[in-house]
Amino acid sequence: MYTLEINERSSQIIDDIIRIRRDIHRHPELGFHEYRTSSIVSDFLENLGFTVYTNIAKTGVVGVLEGKSSGKTIAIRADMDALPIAEENDFEYVSQNPNVMHACGHDAHTAIALGVAKILSGFRDRISGNVKFIFQPAEEGLGGADFIINEGVLDNPSTDAIIALHVSPLLKSGQISIGTGPVMASPADFDIVIKGKGGHAAQPHKSINPISIGVNILNMFSSIIPKTITQTLSPFKSAILSITCFEAGNTYNVIPSQAFIKGTVRAFDRETHDEIYAKMQSIIASITSAEGADFSFNYDLSYPPVINNDEIAKLISNASKKIIGKDNVLEKPEPSMLAEDFSYYTLKVPGAIFNLGCSNPCDENFHNLHSSRFNLDENCISTGMQILSQCVLDFLG
Q1: Which residues are annotated as a binding site for Mn(2+)?
Q2: Exactly one of 53, 93, 303, 345 is catalytic; which is it?
């Protein structure tokens, strides 16, 4: 129902929505500083006659479309922030802000949600209930979802369900994937400082070398995941531990006094994180003690995992099949070790997020999310608008 009309309305507005996406891409803004973007969003929603709330969690915007009569409320969430990356693309709408780039597709998420608002505004007199559009700041590592939820965006009217999408260059434009249960991991970032004793490189016996200690620690870390999964927990669990930074010293003939290690752990439950943390702590303490060194270790557990509600995931799957056909809907994909603060919403109300394919079907060479060369096939914008619109209309009946 409504599928053909959704397609027609999408075709009528797609050029305008692409222009908005390119404008936002050209002027990216970091988390909690999305002032220009939020102004574009609020002006657009006000022109549609929505009830609009601004300055939520600093730069967040909420627009509410009220139907002809009372009923359920479904929310659509779109994140607005960019990344601290210097863009290396050369198209006409490349970032004009030095060292800031929309490398994760949030420009498209924002534009798609605005397109959905425009499409659904034409159904205002045919739906019962409300559609709430949540434009969230600071998804990238800052947990903006938690802040905006704490300011009441799921209330007034009370939200019955929430849906979202994330572009994925691992899928072709015109495809989506949707899973149930745990679909995205819970991340933890860690910092280790190894405190040795600096000295002359020609007299290593008078020093405590934090570099060699760090190497030994990292070698032992390689056994943590397999032992934690197979010996302590369950072979059906999964996790990763990645080292992303190892810094020490800056010249040839000096043994430094300290070494610094950074990295991330991803898992799908708190129990696994606790086991990994305990094993890391034990390894670091044992090796540094044996070498006469000291250490500090910080393990910062961040977002909870994203848990897709079965019924809302089914809603998305069925709506997607109406728009793109069942062959282009990939169900039950492998859970992703990427993280998303959409998880905070799903702790409060039934919700689900899906992956929207955004790579060009004719081009096998693509740049992944968070790449300085990332770009998307803009055909995915229409697909995203239509699927979300269909989801809303199916949910509200």
Answers
A1: 104, 106, 140, 166, 370
A2: 303
